[in-house]
Amino acid sequence: MKKKSKLSSVYLVLVFLILYAPIFYLMFYSFNSGGTMYHFEGFTLDWYRELFEDTRLLIIVLNTVIIALLSAVISTILGVAGALAIYYARRRRVKNTLLSLNNVLIVSPDVIIGASFLILFTIIGIKLGFVSVLLAHIAFSVPIVVIMVLPKIEEMSTSMIYAALDLGASRWDVLTKVILPYITPGIFAGFFMALTYSLDDFAVTFFVTGNGFTTLSVEIYSLARRGVSLNINALSTLLFVFTMMLVVGYYFITKRNNRPNGLGVKQ
Amino acid sequence: MKSNSRNLYLIPYIIWIGLFVVTPILLVLYYSFFDIEGHFTIDNYKKFFTPVYLKMIFNSFWYAFLITLFSLIIAYPTAYLLTKTKHKQLWLLLIILPSWINLLLKAYAFIGIFGTYGAANSFLEVMGIGSKQLLFTDFSFIFVSVYIFLPFMILPIFNALDELNPSLIDASNDLGASPWTTFRRVIFPLTLDGVKSGCQVVFIPALSLFMLTRLIAGNRVITLGTAIEQHFLVTQDWGMGSTIAVFLIIAMVLIMVLTGKRKRGIL
After folding, report:
1. CB proximity A116 to B under 8 Å
2. ABC transmembrane type-1 domain: from which residue to which, for each copy (chain B) (predicted)?
């Protein structure tokens, strides 16, 4: 038995090693003064300095963040409305239809979403660039927000709504003073998911972005196609740190999500 | 509840569904009947069933199958051993963490690792095998894909194993079943749903990832996703691209029907 558990820990450690090795390999060589990803000459921060002096890249980072924040905010609003629409749909068939339509974009491969949106924007006449990328990001983030918010609404007891109505609350009051405070953790979780999906997306953006506008993922792709350049290593180290911060933030939000129900309602 | 309040939430949500879910799919279907000059035709479908395209489809499915198979072979024991660890939720989080890092950066790391002088070749030298051309081969493509999809395969299997009632295993042992029989007759059948959803999460994106084939396989591997990207963005033959997209959508629906309901997508 002892030998067996040793073997299993070796296996687990090996999987962890393989999962993390490439990431740390990348980060390690971002400090290489040699300029290649195989021979470590000496420690340097030159690549980071170069990164911060590259105004074009900084603009791209800014674009990416603006797109992510805007699309997350708008898709959260739409997603909450969608979750409420599904919740209030009384007929079972309507509910199921809405839910399946909601999930179409979640299960579709990115290439299909990208290609079909490209056709859509071209036909409507939206110029490819900031607006098309923003619309695309909103579009694929909405169903994720719905999925995150809906369980929270469904676990809410309907008697709370009836109680509020009996006590003379208007529909607007019910929404802002009863429902929204209750589902706030779900809304935050949805917002964070939308944010990370937008920051992470490559394929859809690649299809609907024009010549003038790029996000970070698209830029990394075109840089990586040209071969190794340690700028990308420095960039990925920074992105890694940033991603970790987001994950930790998300972790705490979902932890709050799991609190006993009563605590979710604010005064 | 009065019905007029429900309609208000439905309005933005229905607009979103109409514009970004229903319309794009119809547009892809519509465009698949037009050739590059804009004439209505079913030539695209005729072209699709020629040996060139059929071979590509076969290859695409074969690679996706291999990627799914290897992910499953590595992921199942990992998930199983994870459920046996003490702080399993924490370990699970650590396994999932790499999946939050931008896919392109991970692919880029492998360009360095599999490069002519990269870590993988140094390792082969030390082992006495000698350096080999690793980048731009089928091996590197499958390896990197499995690396990227591994967390998505582990998660549903872990959840299924975690929900498994341990007294069933005790009962099986008490009744004299060998560990292998217990696994084959009790554990595996009861976690089949997790395996199925894991396969779904891996197989569908594996059909359509075009950036990996471009960066790692160097145009040697052409998947359905690569072909769609090629037709839409390089040759501008949207009709043919749409035809392949229609086929990919049909394949996706078939896979989902075959493997049951998918709970939540990741990519």
Report:
1. yes
2. 57-259
Residue A258, judged by CB atoms within 10 A of its CB (0-12, 13-18, 19+), counts as exposed
Check if the beta carbon of residue B172 is closer than 8 Å to that of residue B185.
yes
Distance CA A17, CA A239 (A): 20
Token representation of residue A76: 């959260």
Among A2-16, B45-59, B121-135, the least confident range = B121-135
- Counted domains in chain A: 1
Summarize pLDDT for A76-121 with one digit per residue, the tens: 999 999 999 888 887 888 888 888 889 888 888 889 999 999 999 9
CATH class of domain segment(s) B50-258: mainly alpha
A99 touches chain B (CB under 8 A): no
User: Once rounded to an integer, what is the mean pLDDT over residues A229-245?
Assistant: 84
Distance CA A189, CA A253 (A): 6
Q: Which of B113, B215, B241 lies nearest to residue A25, judging by beta carbons?
A: B113
Query: How many Cβ atoms are within 10 Å of B176's Cβ, its own excluded?
Result: 7
Please give the residue range of the domain that contains residue A149: 55-264
How far does chain A reach from its first CA to its final CA, in angstroms? Answer: 55
Residue A240 in any domain: the answer is yes
User: What is the helix (H) or strand (E) element at residue B140, kind and residue range?
Assistant: helix B138-163
- Within a domain: A41: no
pTM: 0.85
State the ipTM, two decimals: 0.85
HEC profile for chain A?
CHHHHHHHHHHHHHHHHHHHHHHHHHHHHCCECCCCCCCCCCECCHHHHHHHHCHHHHHHHHHHHHHHHHHHHHHHHHHHHHHHHHHHCCCHHHHHHHHHHHHHHHHCCHHHHHHHHHHHHHHHCCCCCHHHHHHHHHHHHHHHHHHHHHHHHHHCCHHHHHHHHHCCCCHHHHHHHHHHHHHHHHHHHHHHHHHHHHHHCCHHHHHHCCCCCCCHHHHHHHHHHCCCCHHHHHHHHHHHHHHHHHHHHHHHHHHHHCCCHHHHCCC
pLDDT tens for residues B86-120?
Answer: 888 888 888 888 888 888 888 888 888 887 777 77
The domain spans of chain B are 50-258
CATH for A213: 1.10.3720.10
Q: Is residue A100 part of a domain?
A: yes
Asked whether the beta carbons of residue B115 and residue A228 sit closer than 8 angstroms, the reply is: yes
- Is A85 at the interface with chain B, CB within 8 A? yes
Q: Least CB-CB distance to A107: which of B13, B95, B262? A: B262
The closest alpha carbon to B235, from B10, B83, B44, belongs to: B44
